[in-house]
Amino acid sequence: MAILKRGPRVPAWIAAAGIALVVGIVVGYYGHEWLGRSAAPAEGQGMPPAMLAGGMGAPGGGGAGGFGAAGGGDHAATRSLTGTIRGLAVLERYHAASLAPAQRQEVRAALASISPEGVLSEQDAEKIATRISTALTPEQRQILEDLSPFRRAGRGTGAGAAGGGAGQPAGNAPVSAAAAGGRGAGGAGSIDWEHPFREGPNHDRLQELNEALAKQ
Fold first, then answer.
1. Is 205 in contact with 85 (CB distance < 8 Å)?
2. Could you give the 3-state DSSP secondary structure of residue 208?
3. Highest mean pLDDT among 18-27, 149-158, 171-180
4. Which candidate, 195, 200, 185, 145, places its Cα nearest to that of 169?
5. Which of 9, 66, 161, 167 is 20 to 30 A from 37, comparing alpha carbons?
6. Which residues, other chains included, contact 92 with Cβ-Cβ below 8 Å and sequence gap of 6+?
7. How far apart, in whole angstroms, are the C-alpha atoms of residue 125 and residue 62?
């Protein structure tokens, strides 16, 4: 048999380096895949409540009936009420609310139960917000809902951007807590939510709305 010719031998260190490089590439690839999967949130985890609730939850979430302000949880009903009042005050300022005399009387009666110096509980805030919302027509509630900056930010995405992006409010649900925006629209850590109308923009809008409604 003819003796096969052999090429030059590859130094051991070069062969070892090549093997290590290949192993490193493989390990790096699968390590990256594993880290990516473990870092990805499980379905329903880490998502804003607004996303999970089809756009109605919000970072104020469901305040007093489904619209919420900016993040659900603490003071949701109070946030909803302050947003409703701020929105109505702005609409009345520009004569855009179009409230009928009976509606104005009902809203004034609801506002009369608010004592700026007194403690406003979540239960009372929810009752007042519901009473105001019930006095409004669906079109008026929709206008207030459209004032929400969170709704504007989420329009067209289906996420509702922290509540209010799910379209027209159902039934007599109170309007968004973020209506008319401003410091009272969620995330306002400086607000005393037990006395939300004692001072600041919320106090000013409550007074403005009361004065506007009194003019008939």
1. yes
2. helix
3. 18-27
4. 145
5. 161
6. 99, 208, 209, 212, 213
7. 13
Q: Find, among 60, 75, 212, the residue nearest to 148 by Cα.
A: 60
Higher pLDDT, 5 or 56: 5
**Residue type for 4, please?**
L
Tokens 């004065």 appear where?
211
Residue with tokens 């302000």: 69
Measured at the CA of 151, the angle between CA 50 and CA 198, to 5 degrees, comes to: 95
**In-domain check, residue 81:** yes
The predicted structure's pLDDT at residue 191: 86
The answer as to whether 78 is a domain residue is yes
3-state secondary structure 5-73: CCCCCCCHHHHHHHHHHHHHHHHHHHHHHHHHHHHCCCCCCCCCHHHHCCCCCCCCCCHHHHCCCCCCC
Considering the domain boundaries, does residue 121 fall inside one?
A: yes
Q: What total of structural domains would you count in the chain?
A: 1
Q: Is residue 32 part of a domain?
A: no
**What's the predicted TM-score (pTM) here?**
0.53
